[in-house]
Amino acid sequence: MANTTTQGQEIIICDFCDKAVQQFCNSCQVDLCEDCINKHVTSLKSLTHDIVPFTKRTVQLVFPQCTFHSHQRCEGHCQQCDVPVCIKCLTGLHRGHESEDMTTIITRLREKIKKETDEIEAIIPKNRAKDAEAENRISRSMAHFIQLEKQVKTQRKQWHIEVDNIFNSLESVIQSLRDHHITTLKSCQSKLRSQNSSMILTVRNNREILKSNKVSDVNNYKSKLMEFKNIPQIPDLSLPSLKTNTVQGREYSIEFGECKASLNQTTVFSLTDKDSNMFVKELLKEVKVIANIPTNIENLCRVACVGSDKAWISGEKKMITCVDIHGAVQNTVTSTCKTFPADITVTRQGELIYSDAHNRTVNIVRDRKIKTLITTPKGWRPRELCCTKSGNILVGMCTVDKNYYKITCYQGQRVTQEIDKDEHGHPIYQGGEYLVYVVENNNGDIVASDLNADKVVVVDRTGKVRFRYNDKRPGGKKSFCPNQLVTDSMGHIIVTDPLNDCLHILDQNGQFLRCVDNCGLHFPVGLSLDSEGRLWIWLYNSGELKIIKYI
Predict the structure, then answer these.
(1) Quick check: 435 and 383 in contact, CB under 8 A?
(2) What is the 3-state secondary structure (H, E, C) of 272-296?
(3) How far is CA 224 from each of CA 4, 193, 218, 221, rounded to the nearest angstrom?
């Protein structure tokens, strides 16, 4: 019903044109002018129309036209078939079915709508109050972090001053030692040169005596041989050395004699560390299944989460696909691999990285273009990948014959560390057909699942073996079969065990905490962790992704 106002008087407009209303159709509940009555009746010939003067209109429900019987409106609803019905329907196709009067249904629904509307209206002030509280917290957080940034800048200057003082003192000690060494050696040199001059003069005088025929010259000769045989000794001054030790991003130390200074980082600063998940303190007694996602990827092999609701997945084809938590495809990338990517992962900025074993490259997808980040040495094939918190890339690689595995840390194209042998010179990882998956833990440990040895192997940041884990699940009949693994914000090590249809959860020291086996994990192989701390698990037999919450 269209209304307009002219000079304080309300004019009701026809529903079909801009003219003033004169008539009303009680059957259809529409406003009509004289010219539009025929248009309305003609457009709905199958229905009866009760046309009355507008002042005698009756506001009532407008029932839908029956699709099976002309000139009939559906004033009832078949409960059995869940469809609107007219009186003829009830005596025909829907005879004997339970039905309900449409007016009763509409009255009940209107009451429900009114009740929900009242409840929503009551929620609006609470929502606005929460919004205001959020805005206030945002302001306070912004002010707090601005203050923190100022404090960091102040501390940076103070640390730089302290470091400058340390090295100024070090340079002063070096200069003092240098002056002492040079003064001592020059004093010795001066004595040697003085004696040398005396010896040259004595030799000259002695030769003159030998030529002389005067008895007095020869008789007055005094020997200086013993004096000259006593040659001044050059002091044996040991040269000091400067000792340094640098573990990139972890430790810096310098030592010069009694002067020592060190800078150690005992915790890696990271948004995924305990501080960012301070409210997550314990494992759930029973895990919760969040979603089951069919992938339609043939022989799915790898899973790498992006944020909280997406993941890159790849199978035994060149294509790498990004799906959301509902299984909808968000993006696709065709890799440069001859067959399929050996592994995929994402950087802390969410960029896709994959390894191309055939071409010996590790590649990044940036702005929909593929760029080579790393080319491994000839004879070595890159396979498993992990992006560390410091921005480096851990690459698990093997020889062409797969008889030897190692883990190499790259900073850009530069190798900063290779992990392959223990303190006794023995290989840490066993050669063989299967892969060695690798992740980094919060404490800097490098955790690998060595499927060829059926063990989880953990080394510290220097590459020294801390422990190996190969226990069967409690009550499990088959031996431990580690596959892909992750570490979480609390330092837990979570590894898939497909032969036993479960996940093993360990603490960062290798202590078994619990087994996850009660949420339909049939042959779990792939594993990734999203930003909400949920596990995305690839099930080999069904080819689906299962998302679970465990903390």
Answers:
(1) yes
(2) CCHHHHCCCCCCCCCCEEEEEEECC
(3) 136, 17, 14, 10
User: CA-to-CA distance for 397 and 382, rounded, in angstroms?
Assistant: 4
Placement of tokens 């570490």 in the chain: 487
Half-sphere exposure of 294 (CA within 13 A, CB side): 1
From 52, 74, 99, give the residue that closes a domain. Answer: 99
pLDDT score for 268: 46
Note down the domain range covering 543. Answer: 274-549
391 Cβ contact partners less than 8 Å away, ≥ 6 residues apart: 347, 348, 411
Burial letters 462-475, b for 16+ CB under 10 A, else e: ebebeeebeebbee
pLDDT of res. 296: 77
Task: With a cut of 70, list the residues of the chain below it in pLDDT.
Answer: 1-10, 46, 246-251, 264-281, 298
Q: Is residue 54 part of a domain?
A: yes
Residue 150 lies in a domain: no
Alpha-carbon distance of 493 to 441, in angstroms, equals 8
Residue 385 CA to residue 486 CA, distance in Å, equals 12
Residue with tokens 């339609």: 296
Does residue 417 fall inside a structural domain? yes
pLDDT score for 248: 57
Number of domains in the chain: 2
Q: What is the pLDDT of residue 42?
A: 84
CATH code of 396's domain: 2.120.10.30
Residue pLDDT, tens place only, 35-52: 899 888 888 776 778 898
CA–CA separation, 389 vs 494, rounded Å? 18
Q: In the sheet where 512-516 sits, what is the strand order? A: 485-487, 493-497, 502-506, 512-516
Among 99, 132, 162, the domain-final residue is 99
State the DSSP code for 367: T
DSSP string, 433-449: SS-EEEEE-TTS-EEEE
The structure tokens listed for 348 are: 């802390």
pLDDT at 36: 92
Asked if residue 208 belongs to a domain, the reply is no
The burial class, CB within 10 Å (0-12 / 13-18 / 19+), for 101 is exposed
